[in-house]
Design brief:
Elements: E1 7-11, H1 15-28, E2 33-38, H2 41-51, E3 55-59, H3 67-77, E4 82-87, H4 94-99, E5 103-106, H5 111-123, H6 130-141, E6 155-160, E7 163-168, E8 172-178, E9 181-186, E10 190-193, H7 197-201, E11 209-213, E12 216-219, E13 223-228, E14 234-238, E15 244-247
Parallel strand pairs: 1-2, 1-3, 3-4, 4-5
Antiparallel strand pairs: 6-7, 8-9, 8-12, 9-10, 11-12, 13-14, 14-15
Helix pairs in contact: 2-3, 3-6
Amino acid sequence: MSETSSTCVVAEDEVLLRDALVKLLGDAWPELQVVAECEDGASALDALAEYKPQVAFLDIRMPGLSGLEVAAAAAEASPHTQIVFVTAYDQYAIDAFERGAVDYLLKPITPARLTTTVQRLRARTGNQDAVALAALLERLGTRPLPPAASPPLTWITASAGRETRLILVDEVAYFRADNKYTTVVTAEGEALLRTPIRELLAVLDPNTFKQIHRSTIVNLKAIAGVVRDDTGRGTVRLKSRPETLTVSAPFMTLFRHM
């Protein structure tokens, strides 16, 4: 790996942990340029597609897309990027990581362990074994992530004109970013939620709601079909709504097995 051109994306939703990792990287690998610091899976995937870095440090649990989902999508968005997973779950799939083509770091990250990872990354010649990485992600995909600290959101209150509505999350077709707020779209209509879309990602069930665009989260149960065009982007048809939703090219990997 060239010392003059090594670039990196760091994805970690907890700002203190992200800052700490970036600082540790600066000490362990001074030549490495961190081109993007990301706070969720969607921004990490966008950064991988834009910068195509040599290395990506991905937290496994992030709002919206998990680190595993980002890594799977990166196989198309940035196939030459070497992946390092960061996890707080010392019992989670460590055996798979040990046998896989990627490295992993356990939180809290120690300088000594990071130095070992950096040495491994520097020693590798050529690209990461894409076949081995795909096999690893397939194995990990069969294992549910450890439960979050709190259960997923089940209902929300949103405003429609002067009315405040109580909406079951399962009835939401999709969420759309609207400046600092979020539009909640159901079969019956729209309402406004005073919560930014990124904060919603942290409390929605990740098995049901997926981010398909920087500004859109869709309920997988509300999808009637997905079509991919020649540019790599996709279009989602909904069961209960006439409009269609755009899927950014990097996010199309999420629908590969649908």
